[in-house]
User: Fold this.
Amino acid sequence: MQLLLGVAEEQWGLCTRRQALDAGVAPSSLARLLRDGFLERVAHGVYRVRGGAEPDHMQLRAAWLQLDPAVPAWERLRNPAVALVSHTSAAALYGVGDLRADIHEFTMPRRHQTRRRDVRIHRGEVPDRQRIVLAGMPTTRAARMIADLLADNIEPTSVAHITATVIDRVFDYPGAVAECIAPYAGRFGFRRGDGPALLDHLLNLAGYDRSRDVINALARGE
Assistant:
């Protein structure tokens, strides 16, 4: 248990089978800890040490750990190729919108296969300025999340309400949102690359009227 606690302590009380074995826990000991109720299996090859509070977004965290089961969470954060929580999963982690979060979505710079039907891997490069660590997990910034939802053809009204919440709670800045969503302006009938116009359209669609002039000015860098 002490070996497992050393691993799980910095991973929200979770550890993978591979991490446990690498830490020196024998397979027979792991099976006994599961049988005796000291460990709880939360996903294939991922366990929670019982006794502490259950972490929020536990299934999302477990799915993320499965993507690279040998590497501890704290070491992955230094890896530029780390899987980023993105799209609807990022929205769930930010606590915005009401999109279904039964599919765990991540973005990685290279191809990665998974057998899980409830895990979706997007392939893409995410610049450093568009990523943060949120709730201990590497995540796309809110501006990039909005752009990803547009790229994924999520219903515009849903994206609009998410955008309004992001601006209202200052999860990201108008200029950053406008920059990220600029490639999709033409899809909505605006001049190509006009991110500020698309941002204003989304806020209008959401019925958000607070400080719209100020937001438009900030989005245009004025």
User: Anything to note?
Assistant: The longest helix spans residues 156-168. Residues 2-57 form one domain. Strands lie at 14-16, 39-43, 46-49, 84-85, 104-108, 119-123, 131-134, 137-140. The longest strand covers residues 39-43.
